[in-house]
């Protein structure tokens, strides 16, 4: 966690080194995609970081406590902001600065001009045929300005950011682990962020190349990671499992998929409330435009992103529950979004304040899981509120870090 490539190695030539600390818990953070709704996990992360600071001091940062942070689309942007180094080799942003970043930059990424507000439905229909809704120029320039020449291999802890290669029609996962051993998989962080957030119909696809010292070139033609994994929790688990199977010494002596030794926090960006506004009778008549635009929504994109996120959550809950480790997996998600709050690009001051309120209120709600039959969240008895669960997580995260540093454990 927060190693910046430096192993807390306890293996030397395949044998244990008792002078180095072991890993008691593998710690993972996952952040969904969801456009401007990234404000919601931003509020949750600000609370978590405040609890870490209460235990370990004001300089504590999210990146110091997680072995891997995974994020898709807007979650990929948050992941990068929390792990990219500044000039002092500390995280570029504290968690408390995430929401101010959204408030300042979202109206420029998703401009809401008077013309679009008046002719919004007509423009959306035309845009579904003519090209992406936004040109993406501000987002690209902002990311390039913030991240400069910083590459994936330089993140302060390990990250995983998915995208989707439209030329190869397959997912592309960018990971710090691979970037440190393969130059062709070590692009600029700005290119990764632009790619993972290139949501179809909203922002343009992104092309870039990487080259290695032998003159080899790799080409990337990428769109939003939500096409492959809007909720990247399973990708994060699979990646860490692979690293353990490959005997990565950072995770010794944890065994692959020993859920009792995994601590996983998964943050959603909110789902629309089940309003039953679509039905099979109506959808049976839709053509391309009907699936891309219907009464202010994009049914095709909304369906596969929400379905993918929920399936990952359900499967992860089942996995941890069946192995007796249900308290080691915490999913925080709001399933009651309505109106503008359910959109991914409404950047009006009113809507952004609504999303902040939703994120703060989410902390007070009980820990829940999705019912596979109804799709409705159900309270998990005995686990208290999300706020209380995060406080417990913060203590576990601090104790794991202290264990590795050889410091006293918090009772």
UniProtKB/TrEMBL annotation:
E.C. numbers: 3.1.1.-
Residue interval(s) of motif GXSXG: 71-75
A Gene Ontology molecular function term of the record: monoacylglycerol lipase activity
GO biological process: defense response; lipid catabolic process
Residue stretches making up the PNPLA domain: 29-237
Residue numbers covered by motif DGA/G: 224-226
Family: Belongs to the patatin family.
UniProt function note: Lipolytic acyl hydrolase (LAH).
Entry domain remark: The nitrogen atoms of the two glycine residues in the GGXR motif define the oxyanion hole, and stabilize the oxyanion that forms during the nucleophilic attack by the catalytic serine during substrate cleavage.
Protein name: Patatin
């Amino acid at each position: 966690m927060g190693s910046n490539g430096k192993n807390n190695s306890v293996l030397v030539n395949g044998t244990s080194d008792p002078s180095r600390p072991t890993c008691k818990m593998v710690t993972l953070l996952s952040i969904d995609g969801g456009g401007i709704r990234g404000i919601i996990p931003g509020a949750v992360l600000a609370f978590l970081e405040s609890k870490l600071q209460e235990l370990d001091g004001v300089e504590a940062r999210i990146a110091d406590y997680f072995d891997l942070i995974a994020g898709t689309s807007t979650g990929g942007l948050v992941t990068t902001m929390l792990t990219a180094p500044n000039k002092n080799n500390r995280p570029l942003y504290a968690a408390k600065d995430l929401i101010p970043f959204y408030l300042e930059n979202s109206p420029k990424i998703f401009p809401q001009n008077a013309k679009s507000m008046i002719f919004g439905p007509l423009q959306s229909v035309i845009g579904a045929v003519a090209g992406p809704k936004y040109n993406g120029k501000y987002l690209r320039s902002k990311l390039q300005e913030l991240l400069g020449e910083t590459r994936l291999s330089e993140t302060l802890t390990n990250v995983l950011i998915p995208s989707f290669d439209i030329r190869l029609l397959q997912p592309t996962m960018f990971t710090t682990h691979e970037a440190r051993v393969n130059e062709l998989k070590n692009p600029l962080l700005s290119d990764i962020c632009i790619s993972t957030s290139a949501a179809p119909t909203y922002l343009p696809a992104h092309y870039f190349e990487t080259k290695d010292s032998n003159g080899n070139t790799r080409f990337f033609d990428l769109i939003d990671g939500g096409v492959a994994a809007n909720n990247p929790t399973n990708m994060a688990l699979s990646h860490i499992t692979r690293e353990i199977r490959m005997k990565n010494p950072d995770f010794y002596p944890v065994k692959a998929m020993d859920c009792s030794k995994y601590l996983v926090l998964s943050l959603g960006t909110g789902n629309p409330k089940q309003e039953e506004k679509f039905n099979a009778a109506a959808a049976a008549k839709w053509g391309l435009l009907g699936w891309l635009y219907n009464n202010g929504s994009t049914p095709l994109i909304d369906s596969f992103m929400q379905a993918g996120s929920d399936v990952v959550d359900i499967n992860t809950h089942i996995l941890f529950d069946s192995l007796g480790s249900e308290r080691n997996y915490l999913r925080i998600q709001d399933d009651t979004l309505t109106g503008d709050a359910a959109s991914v690009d409404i950047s009006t001051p009113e809507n952004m304040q609504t999303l902040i309120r939703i994120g703060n209120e989410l902390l007070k709600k009980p820990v829940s899981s999705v019912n596979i039959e109804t799709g409705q969240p159900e309270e998990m008895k005995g686990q208290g509120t999300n706020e209380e669960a995060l406080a417990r997580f913060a203590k576990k995260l601090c104790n794991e870090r202290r264990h590795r540093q050889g410091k006293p454990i918090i009772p």
